[in-house]
What does this fold into?
Amino acid sequence: MTEPERHHLSGQALKVYDRMLERVQRGLAEAGDVTVDGVRAEIAKAIEVEYALEEMTREEADLLGAYLTRDLGHLLHFIDETGEGLEEWLQLDISLMEHQLANMLFSIADKTRLDTLELNQKLANEDVSHYISGEVATAGMFKCLNCGHMTCLTATSHIAPCEACNSHYFERVTSRWPKEA
It folds into this structure.
């Protein structure tokens, strides 16, 4: 992606990501019985709606859908392994976040509505732990894989290169996860 394309994407990507997340949340709430295929179908619908609005190219909408799939997969994997909730996954004070985003993520990852083990197993083929600068991610703590510098996103944002070493590679950091031996 060229620098002008990245700036074009950055102008709309954050609000479109949040809109897609909201659509997925509404679709799952209406479905009642949530399955892996249902989550994937709702993400695919959200991609199609955004593409139909003609604000983004097919590639941009697909890329945001991949980011959304990655973030939800990472959240579900964390909940399945630890039994912890959203606050621990984000490693942020929930009051720093928009209440709406927290509600959307909670409704998607609610253990009474989702079989997180099944979702985790089916999403395990995705590498949900690594992030590259320029990608869109939801709020949380990220550690530079080169120097270990910590970066905090308090809302859906583009990941910037590391402030300390200018590296482009990060991993999401959560408290007490992965479980230590």
